[in-house]
């Protein structure tokens, strides 16, 4: 059976969350009717800038935040109608690291297994510690672990009840390059063993390297949901910003210019596909059209540009 015929690991429909005003914080609509499926067997990226609503969505799935409207199913279990089975089907690695510093990694996992009602004989705390490369720390105090070890322990903790779906909320925020690589490897290993993985991140590059599919959320709205390859195509753009020796009265044009826009009187912003041409060619074209170039800078299209691109094409 192909992936498309399997029911989704997670199914979200018209999910709405309005936070009530509290103290000085005003009411906030953090999710404005979000719908998407996470296919089984994938590493699925939920990408979006800070404040987009990623953690709110994850915390609704985890049963930590009450939704205002819409529905969610995990592994076919509705979180309202069948919260027990929904909860059993998902493991959540939260954004914040919280541990009781006086428990050892082994005890952390045993306690969590107890909470989930995993019978003693079915527990696999040592095996899990091995999987996250913490076997030698089984009996160390949690407070003596490095930040990276704590993150890995949190992943093991999320897996004690062997859920088919693992969700990681910003696993690599504020994490160094080496640890990030380790975490990516670990996530890939788990996925190879059949676990469907959802991870939230605000790094396009991370989602790009790891995920089969990426959904982008911005201001509580889903603005894209595509195979990674297609999304990355949209970030191929590079922008050259020019200051010219005279006022631009007529915009220069060329097939290599994806976009050309005036910035003030003497400025020009030209967007091009970095796989097809380069900044040098763009400069020659502009000079060929009779302009002198006073100053030039280039920048890569980033997530922000992809957002702009997507939101403007959605509006068109
Ligand atoms: P992300 O994880 O993408 O950074 P969040 O889901 O944490 O985004 O936040 C989405 C929006 O909801 C933000 O504007 C945030 O300030 C607001 N928000 C999050 N949690 C609460 C809360 N408990 N009460 C009020 N507003 C909240
Ligand atoms: Mg968050």
Explain what this protein looks like in three dimensions.
Helix content is 30%, strand content 28%. The longest helix has 16 residues, at 177-192. With 316 residues, it is of the alpha/beta class. The chain has helices at 54-61, 83-88, 105-115, 125-131, 147-158, 177-192, 204-210, 228-233, 279-288, 303-315; strands spanning 10-19, 28-38, 43-47, 69-74, 77-78, 90-93, 165-169, 196-201, 213-218, 221-227, 237-244, 259-263, 267-273, 293-300. It folds into two domains: 10-230, P-loop containing nucleotide triphosphate hydrolases (Rossmann fold, 3-Layer(aba) Sandwich), CATH 3.40.50.300; 236-300, Alpha-Beta Plaits, CATH 3.30.70. It is built from ten helices and 14 strands. A six-stranded mixed β-sheet has the order 6-7-8-3-9-10, with helices on both faces. It has a four-stranded antiparallel β-sheet with strand order 2-1-4-5. The chain has a four-stranded antiparallel β-sheet with strand order 12-13-11-14, with helices on one face. The mean pLDDT is 89. It binds adenosine-5'-diphosphate and magnesium ion.
């Amino acid at each position: 059976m192909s992936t498309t015929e399997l029911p989704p690991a997670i199914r979200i429909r018209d999910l709405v969350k309005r936070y009530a005003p509290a103290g000085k914080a005003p009411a906030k609509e953090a999710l404005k009717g979000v719908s998407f499926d996470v296919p089984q067997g994938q590493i699925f990226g939920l990408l979006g800038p800070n404040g987009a609503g990623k953690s709110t969505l994850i915390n609704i799935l985890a049963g930590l935040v009450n939704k205002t409207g819409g529905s969610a199913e995990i592994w076919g279990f509705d979180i309202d109608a069948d919260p027990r089975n929904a909860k059993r089907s998902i493991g959540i690695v939260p954004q914040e690291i919280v541990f009781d510093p006086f428990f050892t990694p082994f005890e952390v996992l045993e306690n969590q297994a107890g909470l989930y009602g995993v019978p003693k004989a079915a527990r696999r705390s040592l095996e899990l510690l091995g999987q996250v490369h913490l076997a030698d720390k089984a009996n160390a105090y949690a407070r003596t672990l490095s930040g990276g070890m704590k993150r890995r322990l949190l992943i093991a903790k999320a897996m004690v009840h062997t859920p088919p779906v693992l969700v990681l909320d910003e696993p690599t925020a504020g994490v160094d390059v080496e640890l990030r690589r380790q975490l990516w490897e670990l996530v890939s290993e788990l996925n190879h063993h059949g676990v469907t993985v959802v991870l939230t991140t605000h790094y396009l590059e991370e989602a790009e390297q790891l995920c089969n599919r990426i959904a982008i959320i911005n201001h509580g709205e889903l603005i894209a949901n595509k195979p990674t390859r297609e999304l990355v195509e949209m970030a191929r753009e590079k922008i050259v910003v020019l200051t010219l020796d005279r006022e631009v009265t007529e915009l220069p044009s060329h097939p290599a210019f994806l976009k050309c826009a005036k910035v003030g009187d003497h400025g020009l912003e030209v967007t091009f596909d970095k796989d097809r041409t380069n900044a040098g060619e763009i400069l020659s074209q502009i000079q060929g059209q009779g302009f002198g170039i006073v100053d030039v800078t280039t920048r890569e299209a980033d997530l922000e540009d992809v957002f702009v691109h997507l939101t403007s094409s959605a509006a068109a």
